[in-house]
Amino acid sequence: MAPLPAVDVDTDTVAAIHQLYARQSWSIDAGAASEWAATFTPDGEFHSPTYPDPVAGAAALTEFAAGFDRAARAAGERHRHVLSNLLVDRIDADTLAVAAYLQVVATRIGGESRLLRFTTITDRLTRRDGGWLITRRVVERDDAPR
Predict the structure, then answer these.
(1) Per residue in 112-129, is it b (16+ CB within 10 Å) or e — as a string?
(2) b/e map of 32-46 (b: 16 or more CB within 10 Å)?
């Protein structure tokens, strides 16, 4: 992905986006599926080549996050989402584009940690009720052909 053009975003907005992404990672890693889904708009979309189909809407997003937690527990692992290099650009007054690197790390309970995947996420965010929510996420895996 080519770098996005620089568009100034105020520091309060950037801080709010960092908090949103931290809350999202902590939620899915803790098995708080409805809290994770609430970081998306009610009609939000999640597209990832790791999973067979896109996920859209609050109920489907909640079930997706719950399934992520069930799979980690069944494997005897704790999974962590680690975001870095967040790039926040303004599209208009109520819309942001965010790109970031996302690592998913698995740690076997009582064992070693390993990197499950390294990805790039590209999100579109909308301002709703004074806060920011994700309307669409597209995930690209680093191990996929270009």
Answers:
(1) eeeeebebebbbbbbeee
(2) bbebbbbbbbeebbb
In b/e form, how buried is each residue of 71-109, taking b as 16+ CB within 10 angstroms? ebeeeebebbbebeeeebeeeeeeebbbbbebebbbeee
The pTM assigned to this predicted structure is 0.91
Torsion of CA 106, 112, 115, 121, to 10 degrees: 40
Give the SS3 label for residue 64: helix
Q: Which of 37, 39, 31 is nearest to 125 (CA)?
A: 39
Check if the beta carbon of residue 37 is closer than 8 Å to that of residue 27. Answer: no
Give the model confidence (pLDDT) of 55-108 as tens digits.
Answer: 999 999 999 999 999 999 999 999 999 999 999 999 999 999 999 999 999 999
Task: Render 76-118 in DSSP notation, one character per residue.
Answer: TEEEEEEEEEEEEEEEETTEEEEEEEEEEEEEETTS-EEEEEE
- Beta strands at 95-108 and 113-128: parallel, antiparallel or unpaired: antiparallel
